[in-house]
């Protein structure tokens, strides 16, 4: 396998820049630049020089042996002074060493997967951690990165292998009298996995929302104060406001952190009979995004008005432009801030209640593999109920479920998605 290198820290001027080298010739390459290396996992200060002996930089050198590194290979980290000139010079010198090449995006992590230092779910957790912007995203990504999904999947797999072994024994001794009926134990094992899998599948959607962000649509008639409210929530002028109805034609999105949860606020076109074609397109988009949103804030002109379509559970109905009128109901004014703090409290409470049911699995791919396993298990239970004559069919359904769980953590059938996953990583990962 090639020895690879790349800048592992962010590009641009910084106090420290880290260059990572991984592969069978990592120690040899580092020795060429730094001379005698420090002991494994003990940093040492070294002068780096070119192949011609020209001084490059003074760096902190740290080495990791095979099976004791992130990739499972020899790794050397060079902690340089973080100027772009120093980094460029060191990378150029590494590129001159025979059998060394620049790493591709995500190649260090891919080697960690191939060397069984991580499973596929952990790789996805690392990608999520690198992209995390809020506290909830950080905590969720760390849970996946720690191997929690792999551990629970291994428990499911272990129970299903036991159930399959019992069925295989029934098949092997079909012509003999088997003293024990295995179907109760097989059924109990499968039902336990089904219960746990179902709970995890149900929590996947909330986990996805934590990773990608909850969408909250502000919906209502034209000139109800939706754009002003969006600006008040965002803390900046994200949307154009005016006294003229129909100012907002397209969906305006503002991403924000709400009590550690990622939220995207949507300011939509006012719902009414369209005055022209462009406005009608905007209204159609508003309705589509509002229906697909996780939560809606219906902003009405007065307490006698009705929302443009029936609210769902948890949707918030309020009266807008409360600074210009009086009356009952939950009243908001983006202009004066009236009711905005209470609105944020309502939204936060609703979302925090929802995340209580969050699962460990975070991606649509996870949900699909777990659903595939569930479908196979449901069919296996049906076959078991028919008795020993259908034991072979039940065993095959169990093997299908086990293969789905293997795909979940990357044991099989994952080559097609690896390129997509690793393309999102930077060169140093």
Provide a descriptive summary of the structure in words:
- Helices cover 46% and strands 16% of the residues.
- By secondary structure, the chain is α/β, with parallel strands linked by helices.
- It has three domains: 3-118, 2-Layer Sandwich (Gyrase A, domain 2), CATH 3.30.1360; 126-209 and 363-410, Four Helix Bundle (Hemerythrin (Met), subunit A) (Up-down Bundle), CATH 1.20.120.430; 213-356, Rossmann fold, CATH 3.40.50.
- Strands 3-4-5-2-1-6 form a six-stranded mixed sheet. A five-stranded mixed sheet has the order 8-9-7-10-11, with helices on both faces.
- A hairpin with an 8-residue loop joins strand 1 (3-7) and strand 2 (16-22).
- Helix 6 (148-172) runs antiparallel to helix 7 (183-212) and helix 11 (364-385) runs antiparallel to helix 12 (391-409).
- The longest helix is centred in the middle third of the chain and has 30 residues, at 183-212.
- The protein is flat and about 80 Å long.
């Amino acid at each position: 396998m090639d020895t690879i290198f790349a800048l592992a820290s962010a590009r641009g001027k910084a106090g420290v820049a880290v260059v990572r080298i991984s592969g069978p010739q990592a120690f040899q390459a580092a020795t060429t630049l730094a001379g005698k290396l420090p002991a494994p996992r003990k940093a040492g200060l070294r002068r780096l020089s070119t192949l011609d002996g020209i001084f490059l930089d003074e760096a902190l050198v740290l080495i990791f042996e095979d099976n004791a590194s992130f990739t499972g290979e020899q790794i050397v980290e060079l902690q340089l002074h973080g100027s772009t000139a120093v980094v460029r010079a060191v990378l150029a010198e590494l590129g001159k060493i025979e059998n060394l090449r620049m790493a591709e995006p995500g190649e260090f992590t891919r080697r960690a997967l191939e060397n069984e230092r991580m499973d596929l779910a952990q790789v996805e957790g690392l990608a999520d951690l690198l992209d995390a912007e809020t506290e909830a995203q950080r905590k969720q990504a760390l849970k996946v990165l720690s191997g929690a999904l792999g551990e629970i999947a291994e428990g499911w797999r272990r129970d299903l292998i036991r159930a399959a072994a019992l069925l295989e024994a029934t098949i092997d001794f079909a012509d003999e009298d088997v003293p024990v009926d295995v179907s109760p134990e097989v059924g109990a094992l499968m039902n336990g996995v089904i219960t746990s899998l179902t709970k995890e599948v149900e929590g996947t959607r909330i986990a996805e929302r934590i990773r990608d962000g909850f969408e909250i649509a502000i919906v209502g008639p034209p000139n109800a104060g939706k754009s002003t409210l969006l600006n008040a929530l965002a803390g900046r002028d994200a949307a154009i406001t005016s006294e003229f109805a129909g100012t907002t034609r397209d969906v305006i999105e503002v991403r924000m952190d709400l009590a550690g949860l990622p939220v995207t606020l949507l300011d939509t076109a006012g719902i009414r009979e369209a005055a022209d074609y462009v406005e009608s397109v905007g209204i159609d988009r508003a309705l589509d995004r509002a229906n697909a949103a996780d939560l809606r804030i219906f902003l009405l002109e007065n307490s006698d008005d009705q929302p443009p379509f029936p609210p769902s559970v948890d949707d918030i109905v309020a009266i807008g432009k409360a600074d210009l009128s009086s009356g009952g109901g939950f009243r908001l004014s983006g202009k004066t801030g009236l009711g905005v703090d209470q609105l944020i409290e309502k939204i936060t409470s609703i979302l925090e209640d929802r995340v209580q049911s969050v699962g460990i699995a975070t991606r649509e791919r996870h949900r699909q593999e777990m659903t595939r396993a569930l479908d196979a298990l449901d069919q296996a239970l049906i076959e078991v109920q028919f008795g020993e004559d259908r034991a072979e069919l039940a065993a095959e359904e169990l093997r299908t479920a086990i293969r789905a769980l293997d795909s979940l953590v990357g044991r099989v059938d994952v080559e097609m998605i690896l390129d997509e996953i690793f393309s999102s990583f930077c060169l140093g990962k």
